[in-house]
Input
Amino acid sequence: MDFITSADGTRIAFERSGSGPPLVLVHGSTADHTRWANILPDLESRFTVFAMDRRGRGKSGDASDYALEREYEDVSAVIRAAGPDVGVIGHSFGALCTMEAALRVDNLKQLVLYEPAFPVGGSPLYSPDIPDRLKAILETGDRDAMLVAFFKDVVGAPDAQIEALRADPSWPGRIAAAHTALRELADGDYVFEPERFQDLAVPTLMLVGENSPKELTAPARALNDALPDSQIVTLKGQGHVAMTTAPKLFLDAVMGFLAP
Output
């Protein structure tokens, strides 16, 4: 693993592999860089991949105080370290961090954002009782049950999707970092201001799952409307984790957009 120091002094880890133009991968809640393992060989064949561990998981450090802004700074630091003309793929909470990081750097070439998570149109991102319910499960020590509840109640994932995630190489890391999912419910308090993104002229691909709940697709559509150079692709028959449930479909969409 390589490391970069973020703005607050936290060490952020990333795994560098492959060859070609730089491509930063930013995983979502509860995951780490292993979340991309099943599609990594395809990406490595065309790109120098920088697969980061977001703070508090994997080999990355953490801080005693948590704020969304620190996550934006972490992603920005890895993007800057990757060199010129960087592509970025951000997923879910990681896509939210990526879109904010994009406003803080000047070396981006392309963005792929898969269902960034934030409230739209005054509707809450999730039920207000979810934090307490997840905390209660976590306090029993059953991290697996807490993660299952997270994916059911926050992500709206069906059982088949959850079982696919449990078979994914990233599941052990998710178990280890399950407690960090609670603080990342802060995305429910994020205030989307479209005017902040109207001058972000980086070519952007927004991915949404055909079967994803509206709470996860509406943010992508709102951001797409705000960006000057953006397009939406719907992943047919998929939900929030197509890189796990339909890797070829996901890769076809991504590779067709990212120019080497």
